[in-house]
Amino acid sequence: MANSQGRVYRFGSPATLALYNSAGNLVVTLYTSPDMESYDLTHEADTEEVRNSSGEVVGHITYNNRLTLTVNFIPAGANAADALKAMASPDANGTCVITGAPAVQCGPYEDAINAPGSPGTGPGGRWIYAGGASLKFTQTGKVTGTITLKRYAGMGTTITGGATTL
Fold it and tell me: What is the pTM of this model?
């Protein structure tokens, strides 16, 4: 474990994630969370500038507040079969529950990273997976993966399971 003399710094990327398909079922039963290598949290919003007849900005509108979390992980398990399971990703519109990360305020969320997935048990609903996961295989090193997740402020705690078939 890391320690520090002098100033105190955040170190490491602790968290556990569980991925669910668009029907709300775990992607893999007996799923073991992969080892988190890092995650990048970004607060985003769409914006519009309101200009007067001279072209000067006289107003600024923001909407569609959202968070994007890019998770970099190392698929791992107690054996080769479990490590292979940890490479799985959900189908598009799947969801993700993240627990155990430090509570960080970002955008509209007091605890932006953790998403327990049940109304009333945390700061928001599950993360949404829209597709685009990737795995990197190398000749001489470990397999690494990346998955990008999104949370929308307007959806609040409504993301709790399966997607609605239209």
Answer: 0.79
